[in-house]
Design brief:
The protein is built from five helices and ten strands; from the N terminus they run E-H-E-E-H-H-E-E-E-H-E-E-H-E-E. The protein has 287 residues and is an alpha+beta fold. Strands 4-1-3-2-10 form a five-stranded antiparallel beta sheet, with no helix packed on it. The relative contact order is 0.20.
Length: 287
């Protein structure tokens, strides 16, 4: 069968659970993962970029803030289609990467015993790694496929780059088990969105549903809100958000009323990608 054209964007949230792991994770990402990925999917991915995560703002922990980067792809086909299942070369994905990102326990018995992170038999299939977490007490690996264009424009249409730089708060969310999407969305559209629309510090609001059937992503929706900076975000999402009505199904007493890193995960980024990976020149070290 011929591959079916299926234009989509994907978002991967990358956390780093300890600062001691940051340079290890960066080394793997740029030295191994970028060339491995391009070798595999260059014919059917038109954009592959890394957006550096901005520092976690005060109270960011309860919003499930990720601290490493946002990875973005633009796909021409569904990468999980059967026609692409046989890969000539296996991606180099050591198990410790999942430890550094917080998707397996830090004391996991599979961790490496010699530096930098490799022992024989520890490499895992990349697709298996990107479906990890959630059922082992650790947050799920966030790999969300979304439409290329935003489905809903809820505030700020007409904004241009001449209006200034943007502090972008992007988050993915899902509702607790037993809460239907219809019930959850009723709260989201009637309680959450109107409050943020009224706040002058919020310049832009966009949202799309995640295309969950591609890879069974546990999250349901992606949202972006833009601000001038972390102080404006804190005023809106922490201070002003106290007025957002708590849903009857909530188990948490503060907005967003969802379990951080499991039901609500965030990342803060600027407007521009720090690495356009198709223009990447390799792991060229500082002298």
């Amino acid at each position: 069968m011929a591959l079916e054209f299926n234009l989509m964007r994907s978002l991967i949230y990358v956390d780093v659970v300890k600062e001691d792991y940051r340079v290890k994770l960066e080394y793997w990402l740029y030295h191994h993962h970028v060339p491995d990925s391009i070798s595999q999917f260059e014919p059917y991915v038109t954009k592959y970029a890394f957006y550096q995560a901005l520092p976690m703002p005060p109270d960011g922990e309860r919003f499930g803030t990720h601290r490493m980067q946002l990875t973005e792809h633009y796909w021409l086909v569904n990468p999980f289609t059967p026609e692409l299942k046989n890969k000539a070369l296996t991606e180099y994905f050591p198990i410790d990467v999942l430890k550094w990102q917080g998707n397996i326990p830090d004391e996991d018995p599979r961790k490496s015993v010699k530096p930098p992170y490799e022992t024989k038999g520890q490499n895992i299939e990349g697709d298996d790694a990107r479906s990890s977490g959630g059922d082992n007490g650790c947050p799920p690996f966030i790999f969300a496929f979304v439409p290329v264009g935003w489905e809903e424009d809820l505030k700020g249409k007409g904004r241009t780059k001449e209006d200034g730089p943007n502090y972008r708060w992007q988050f993915v969310m899902r509702y607790p088990e037993g809460v239907s999407e219809e019930e959850g969305d009723k709260w989201f559209y009637e309680e959450v969105i109107p409050k943020f629309q009224e706040m002058p510090e919020v310049h832009r609001i966009l949202t799309s549903k995640i295309i969950r059937e591609v890879n069974n992503c546990p999250y349901y929706r992606v949202v972006e809100m833009w601000f001038d900076g972390p102080s404006a975000w804190h005023k809106c999402a922490v201070e002003n958000a106290k007025s957002i009505k708590k849903p009857t199904w909530a188990k948490y007493d503060q907005f967003p009323y969802l379990k951080p890193y499991f039901e609500f995960s965030s990342i803060f980024v600027s407007d521009i990608a720090r690495s356009d990976n198709y223009k990447y020149g390799g792991y060229i070290m500082m002298r």
